[in-house]
Amino acid sequence: MLLPSPRLDGCIHRAAGPLLKLECSSLNGCQTGLAKMTCGYLLPAKYVIHTVGPVVQGQLGANQEEELKNCYRNSLQVATETKLRSLAFPCISTGVFGYPAESAADVALGTIREFLDTNKDKWNEEIYLKKLPEYFLWDQSSVTCGNPFLLTLLRW
Fold first, then answer.
1. What is the DSSP letter of 93?
2. Structural domains of the chain, ranges and CATH numbers in brackets
3. Which GO terms describe its cellular component (predicted)?
4. What is the model's pTM?
């Protein structure tokens, strides 16, 4: 579904204005794991990439993990195909959909890293790596526990 709800997507719809709802209603919904793009309307973003994450009730299954990976992969693919230069993600499925936050973070970061590694020619990772320390300040020695291999990964 791509229509507003009281959750995050509802906040996005309210901020974007009524034209977003109108455009979303013309897209015939969205299956779990797929992604569709609309204009951003009154949002500061020019576009919104919509995706539907898996619902978790009880134990987390491999199928739900794959569906969540597909949310990120397909969103990144839409962004790449439309030549977007930047992209921001919320924690997909971690609210009322019940996906465990830490597991979702692992899926998100791993899937994004994998996508960037296989699409180096389409995304400028150098800007990301340069800006990351400006927004996420940390002592690299404490994050890496003194492990030179992990420190090398952070500098990569």
1. T
2. 8-123 (3.40.220.10), 125-156 (no CATH)
3. nucleoplasm
4. 0.80
